[in-house]
């Protein structure tokens, strides 16, 4: 009972520093000359209007690659103005037949807004492995909860483009296929954890540049 009574008090002390920062500081443009920390980048001493502006999403990404897709980020590393604001953005270009393979964003939820073409998108719940999938057209929006496996695929007849918003300045990214087959994780281990045979594992490692 005593521990239960102490919990709100402890939580108030944890929240206080963040509340104080929000009340005393309108923004904290990242000073990228210093390293990132768990609390974000330190604040830049002198800021201007240009720190709150980013033109990098205007141009299409290069989809001439294995997955026929490109993500152009506007995360804190490219757009220092989002530091501490709990947001960031990206542009997604997917050529016909292109795919963003199963992946996760450990540090943010994602909102996808289709501006051109057709995208088949979906995510998988963590508790029951239920698949939630939808074909998205121009003007459609879909949300992907933080940390859940999700994908986007262009099964249409023309290139697809989407704008993406994230609930964090640096959402992180881990693509499942690359995590398994694009590194030096021993093939024998990969076989055990994926139920694939040796030939399949070696083929995927060869395609994705893995060793072992």
Automatic annotation (TrEMBL):
Signal peptide stretch: 1-22
Oligomeric state and interaction partners are given as: Oligomer (believed to be a pentamer but probably hexamer).
Where does this protein hold Mn(2+)?
103, 105, 110, 150
UniProtKB keywords? Apoplast, Disulfide bond, Manganese, Metal-binding, Secreted, Signal
Can you tell which superkingdom this protein's organism belongs to? Eukaryota
GO CC annotations, alphabetized: apoplast
Q: Which GO terms describe its molecular function?
A: manganese ion binding
Q: Which cysteines are joined by disulfide bonds?
A: 28-43
So what family is this one in? Belongs to the germin family.
Pfam families, from UniProt? Answer: Cupin_1
Q: Main role?
A: May play a role in plant defense. Probably has no oxalate oxidase activity even if the active site is conserved.
From which source organism is this entry? Lolium multiflorum (Italian ryegrass)
List residues binding oxalate: 105, 110
Name the chain's protein.
Germin-like protein
Where is each Cupin type-1 domain found?
55-202
| Localization terms from the record | Secreted, Extracellular space, Apoplast
């Amino acid at each position: 009972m005593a521990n239960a009574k102490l919990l709100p008090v402890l939580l108030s002390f944890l929240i206080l520093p963040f509340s104080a920062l929000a009340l005393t500081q309108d923004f904290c443009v990242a000073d990228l000359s210093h390293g990132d920390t768990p609390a974000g980048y330190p604040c830049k001493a002198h800021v201007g209007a240009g720190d709150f502006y980013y033109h990098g999403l205007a141009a299409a990404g290069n989809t001439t690659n294995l997955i026929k897709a490109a993500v152009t980020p506007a995360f804190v590393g490219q757009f220092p103005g989002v530091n501490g604001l709990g947001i960031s953005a990206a542009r997604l270009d997917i050529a016909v037949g292109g795919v963003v393979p199963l992946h996760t964003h450990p540090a943010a939820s994602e909102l996808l807004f289709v501006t051109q073409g057709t995208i088949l998108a979906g995510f998988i719940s963590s508790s029951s492995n239920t698949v939630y999938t939808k074909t998205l057209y121009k003007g459609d929006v879909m949300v992907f909860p933080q940390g859940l496996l999700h994908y986007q695929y262009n099964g249409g007849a023309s290139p697809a483009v989407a704008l993406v918003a994230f609930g964090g300045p640096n959402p992180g990214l881990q693509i499942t296929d690359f995590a398994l087959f694009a590194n030096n994780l021993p093939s024998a281990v990969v076989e055990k954890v994926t139920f694939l045979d040796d030939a399949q594992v070696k083929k995927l490692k060869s395609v994705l540049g893995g060793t072992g």
